[in-house]
């Protein structure tokens, strides 16, 4: 199957929904975060920027989801070449329903969040459904 389309929906200040629909099943991730110039990060993203989870968000997601979110944010920050990158990206909400859970969904949402939050145009990601694996493959553009 060819590439699938994805949508990034603006859900208000600092919050996006990343979604892919293929029939009754897809990817749906809601990410709410803030870019801050103060604070201490717990997960390094780039030399200039780190990630921190609010207590609310941190209580709901595991280390695999944090790693995937960090991967997407890191790729987007590196590709965006922001003149003044934030010191910290503080995640307040990361939600994905069990029915639409994909392990790499948070990475795609993080990538889309950077574009939306900073108003930068990033190359699109490639999404395909692998029927044999019964999973979505998300490919980020090369650097």
Could you characterize what this model shows?
The protein has 143 residues and is an alpha+beta fold. The chain has a single domain (7-138), classed as Ribosomal Protein S5, domain 2 (2-Layer Sandwich). Helices cover 25% and strands 34% of the residues. It is built from 3 helices and 8 strands. The protein has helices at 55-58, 63-80, 105-118; strands spanning 7-10, 15-22, 25-36, 43-44, 50-53, 88-95, 126-130, 135-139. The chain has a 6-stranded mixed sheet with strand order 1-2-3-6-5-4. The two termini are 25 Å apart.
Q: What is this entry, summarized?
A:
With 143 residues, the chain is an alpha+beta fold. The chain has helices at 55-58, 63-80, 105-118; strands at residues 7-10, 15-22, 25-36, 43-44, 50-53, 88-95, 126-130, 135-139. Helix 2 (63-80) packs parallel to helix 3.
SSE order:
EEEEEHHEHEE
> Mind describing the biggest β-sheet?
6 strands, mixed
Strand order of the largest sheet: 1-2-3-6-5-4
- Structural class category: alpha+beta
Mean pLDDT: 88
- Assembly type of the chains comes to single chain
Poorly predicted runs are none
Cα separation of the termini: 25 Å
User: Total domains, how many?
Assistant: 1
Q: Per CATH, which architecture?
A: 2-Layer Sandwich
By CATH, the topology is Ribosomal Protein S5, domain 2
Rg result: 14 Å
